[in-house]
Amino acid sequence: MSDNTAVVEISQKANQFRSSIVLQAENKYIDVKSILGLFTTLVGNHAYELHVHGPDADEAKKAMSEVFEKHGLNVKVVSE
Q1: How many domains does the chain fold into?
Q2: CATH code, domain with 18
Q3: Which of 69, 36, 40, 39 is CA-nearest to residue 50?
Q4: Contact (Cβ atoms closer than 8 angstroms) between residue 72 and residue 44
Q5: So what's the pLDDT on residue 39?
Q6: What's the domain range around 49?
Q7: d(Cα 36, Cα 34) in Å, to the nearest integer?
Q8: 40 pLDDT band (50/70/90 cuts)?
Q9: Terminal C-alpha separation, the chain
Q10: Which part of the chain is the HPr domain (predicted)?
Q11: What pTM did the predictor assign?
Q12: Cα-based angle 68, 50, 32 (whole degrees, multiple of 5)
């Protein structure tokens, strides 16, 4: 993905939460709070799973879903 704005926005949004927010791309797990991890992983046409755990997980899931959708990324939030 060449859109740096999406990566920065996703990372900034993730950093507003205390929960652990991990993106699963095939067999890789990326901390969404890491801009570098996102840069090397996010490609628009892939399907991803988002795993969220922590004290504010519900709010984080909603906010992260919205920001991924805004940038046209196919992300499924996994409810554990």
Answers
A1: 1
A2: 3.30.1340.10
A3: 69
A4: yes
A5: 85
A6: 4-78
A7: 5
A8: confident
A9: 28
A10: 9-69
A11: 0.87
A12: 70
